[in-house]
Amino acid sequence: MKIYTKTGDDGNTGLQGNYRISKSHPRIISYGTVDEANASLGVVLTNSLDDDVRQILTEIQNDLFLVGADLSNPNLNDVKNRVSLDMIKKLEQYVDKFELELPPLKNFILPGGDTAAAQLHYVRTVVRRAESQTVQLSEKDEINSNCIKYLNRLSDLFFVMGRLINKRKNREDIPWKI
């Protein structure tokens, strides 16, 4: 099988269920940004990371494929929608667990510190953009609403994990100075 099909040369692309839509459609923008977040997460994983962090980030990469698949599915009633409340709850559990290791925030912090932490803060911003674009999509088309919730929790988790990486690598969070 060749990687190029030429079926998108007219500016359209295929979705699940043999639907074709413009490559500029909010659905394509939404799941494309989820794909961007996943690729950016791959960059984070090139760093030296603790095993628990690596395992969770790899799990999230797999979950992001599910988010993208659900967003590429124009048939909301299709049984293929897989992003679930259990996936969201798992992210919340990770946030709660890691926050126990961290000192309370006393002020806003700037993205930075260790390279992996800074990269994770960057991925967080991509996830926030994916969330906004998914909300825009939901205003136009029906989607699995768990995708929005998942992306919202994921950006929270990445914020906490960025702080966690800095703490574990003995790097200080960078306080925002007015």
Task: Tell me about this structure.
Residues 3-164 form the Cobalamin adenosyltransferase-like domain. InterPro entries: CblAdoTrfase-like, CblAdoTrfase-like_sf, PduO-typ. It is found in: Cytoplasm. It contains 5 helices and 4 strands. It has a two-stranded antiparallel ribbon with strand order 1-2. A two-stranded antiparallel sheet has the order 3-4. Helix 1 runs antiparallel to helix 2 (51-71) and helix 3 (85-99) runs parallel beside helix 5. The N and C termini lie far apart (56 Å). The chain has helices spanning 26-44, 51-71, 85-99, 115-140, 146-168, and strands at 12-14, 20-22, 109-110, 174-175. Helix content is 58%, strand content 6%. With 178 residues, the chain is mainly alpha-helical. It has one domain: Cobalamin adenosyltransferase-like (Hypothetical Protein Ta1238, Chain: A, Up-down Bundle), CATH 1.20.1200.10. A hairpin with a 5-residue loop joins strand 1 and strand 2.
Q: List segments where confidence is low: pLDDT < 50 over at least 5 consecutive residues.
A: none
What is the CATH-assigned architecture? Up-down Bundle
According to DSSP, the number of beta strands is 4
Tell me, what is the CATH class? Answer: Mainly Alpha
- Counted by DSSP, the helix tally is 5
Mean pLDDT: 94
Task: Determine the CATH superfamily.
Answer: Cobalamin adenosyltransferase-like
* Major β-sheet profile: 2 strands, antiparallel
Q: Distance N terminus to C terminus?
A: 56 Å
Q: Provide the CATH topology.
A: Hypothetical Protein Ta1238, Chain: A
Q: Trace the largest sheet across and list its strands.
A: 1-2
Rough outline: elongated
Rounded to an integer in angstroms, the radius of gyration calculated over CA atoms is: 18 Å
State the domain count: 1
- Write the H/E string, N to C: EEHHHEHHE
- Helix/strand class: mainly alpha
